[in-house]
Amino acid sequence: MARSRLPLDELPQNEAVALADGHAVVVRTDDGVRAFVNRCLHQDLPLTGAHVADGVLICPHHFWRYELPEGRLCSEAESAACLTAVDVEIDDGDVVVDLPWPPTPEPGSLREHLLARAETWNRDDPPEPHHPGARHG
Predict the structure, then answer these.
(1) Which distant-in-sequence residues (6+ apart) come within 8 Å of 2 by Cβ?
(2) pLDDT tens-digit profile of 1-56?
(3) Peptide linkage before 69 cis (omega within 30 of 0)
(4) What is the pTM of this model?
(5) Could you state, in order of their start, the residue ranges of all structural domains in the chain?
(6) Which of the residues 4, 12, 122, 125 could staple to 20 if both were Cys, CB 3.0 to 4.6 A apart?
């Protein structure tokens, strides 16, 4: 388990701050502190820097919105997806986040990312649905 700490008084109100080497974001609102895996459900981009307005966390990249405290995607669908919550507690004036897995390092450059993806890519696999330019059929 990976554990990360940040003094509560350094956590701004209504803004997502990265913890645990960027693998989690912590959000402080009037209702308390919440933590989530640092990935938006839209395009898997980080939520670091997201803002909270009226109890809704807003992704800084494409403005996907998540209801707090659960992190549920704002959607009319009854089965709307949720951000993955991370255990968070306040201990001796610090925000403490426990990741339930040892985070794996992500490739540091686009080249490394593409090489890592190429190792598992199979041209017969169907295209991933979140790529807007992917061909189907």
Answers:
(1) 20, 23, 98, 99, 101, 102, 103
(2) 678 899 999 999 999 999 888 889 999 999 999 999 999 998 889 999 999 999 99
(3) yes
(4) 0.72
(5) 2-103
(6) 4
